[in-house]
Amino acid sequence: MNARTTLAVAGRVLIQLRRDRRTSAMLLVLPCAVMTLLWWMFEDLPGAGFSALAPALLALIPFIVMFLVTSVTTLRERTSGTLERLLAMPLGKGDFLGGYALAFGAVATVQSALAVGVSTLFLDLDVAGPTWLLLVVAVLDAVLGSALGLFVSAFARTEFQAVQFMPALVVPQILLCGLFVDRSVLPGFLEVISNCLPLSYAVDAMTKVSEDSDPQILGDLGLVGGFAVAALVLGALTLRRQSE
Amino acid sequence: MMNKGVDVTSLRVVRGGRLVLDDLTFEVAAGQVTGLLGPSGCGKSTLMRAIVGVQRITAGTVRVFGEPAGSASLRRRIGYVTQAPSVYDDLTVAENLAFFARVLGVGADRVEECVRLVDLVEQRSQVVGRLSGGQRSRVSLAVAMLGDPALIVLDEPTVGLDPVLRKDLWETFHRLAAEGAAVFVSSHVMDEANRCDRLLLMRDGRVIADDSPAALLERTGAADIETAFLDIVAAAEVDR
After folding, report:
1. Domain range holding B23?
2. Using CB atoms, which residue from A5, A12, A88 is nearest to B53?
3. In terms of CB atoms within 10 Å, which of B67, B68, B102, B214 comes out highest?
4. Number of structural domains, chain B?
5. Among A82, A93, A95, A96, the residue to mutate for chain B (most B Cβ within 10 A)
6. Collapsing DSSP states into helix, strand and coil, what is residue A111?
7. pTM for the complete prediction?
8. Is A59 part of a structural domain of the chain?
9. Do B75 and A90 make contact, defined as CB atoms within 8 angstroms?
10. What region holds the ABC transporter domain (chain B) (predicted)?
11. Predicted-complex ipTM score
12. Each residue of A16-58: pLDDT tens digit?
């Protein structure tokens, strides 16, 4: 890894995002809007509906958004020839991936800070544990989404195909992460699958932080991080300096 | 003996089960502009990709400055311009160049030099996606020049450019060659052949002629390179 080239890639990705005003605005505003919608749905209902579901949603949003953004951006790099050009230059694959992870990690930090801020300050989200831990989980989650998006971009030839990986890879994780049915009461086979999916641990970590004043989430974070690193390594394998 | 930039021996490339390059052997000398001419689809781009080191080769060897094509040590010394401009459409001219300059580790002064080299000083703050096709390929060319490369590989760099700019670019190629670089340019426009010091004529994955333009004309007795190309193709058909 080389700091100069990694930062060059990260800086460039951020300039590209900044130039795309509509995408930037949606990245920052939509998560807050979705949290507000969720709060509103439960406003007239008894019980802790919003506070029970919000942590899971705070884990889902950065994961989904970064998955989509990264898979489309890296697909563009692959099809426009810029990736081939970069790989013909003295640029390590790790620098390329690290640059993307850094840029999208930074965006995810701002995005999640806004969503967490709106949820805790204006929407009565009760967080028993330290609020900043919600941010840590969200950022790690975003990096996981980026890593997976980067990996699947190798298997898509068009942006249409890239977007279709969302129902294939992301939706099953959402269904099985414990948001709809508690993971422990899923049918045995599905519980095993749920145990193998990274998003389950991200949602677990978020839930623990919001419910527990002294949350033990290192294990969950380690698993999410491990999946992210594995996806990045697989993604690196799909960056070939030579084509067949 | 001439200084070898690129040394290709018995190169064969099979892509997707199709033989694209069939037993090519030739050299590209440093200090010269070598032209690669042939019809679309004859394998020019694949050959260029093999030299740059991004195309896996099936058999034979490709050496650049004595090292196998694609070696890490060569990455700093090769400037490669693909047919489609490989630059970021959503960045400005200057931002594109500044980014690639940081990757290559060259200074900001080099960015300004390259902007001037391709005559885009007025457009430097414009987003590349809003430039004309010719201007975009010049951005791509400028990126290839950033590292002051010793081997410059240009895949159809003058397509869609106006005649004045084409002439300017050819002068630039010759100036770079005069400074010692090996310049390898492909084209399917035969009238660009006369601007090369040496010509490789390609057809169906084979090199059918490798000579200076003057020698080619003399050998075939043709009035122009296009006719010479047709004569050589016809002679090769008879041989078969």
Report:
1. 4-239
2. A88
3. B102
4. 1
5. A82
6. helix
7. 0.86
8. yes
9. yes
10. 6-229
11. 0.85
12. 999 988 989 988 999 999 999 989 988 888 877 888 888 888 8
Residue A92 in domain: yes
> Would you say residue A212 lies in a domain?
yes
A87 at the B interface (CB within 8 A)? yes
Domain count for chain A = 1
pLDDT in tens, A173-209: 999 988 888 888 889 899 999 989 999 999 999 989 9
* Domain boundaries, position A82: 3-40+50-238
Whether residue A76 lies inside any domain: the answer is yes
* CATH code, domain carrying B43: 3.40.50.300
Task: Supply the pLDDT for residue B1.
Answer: 41
A:182-221 residues touching chain B, CB 8 A cutoff:
none
Q: A68-115 pLDDT, tens per residue? A: 988 888 888 888 889 888 888 888 888 898 898 889 889 988 998 999
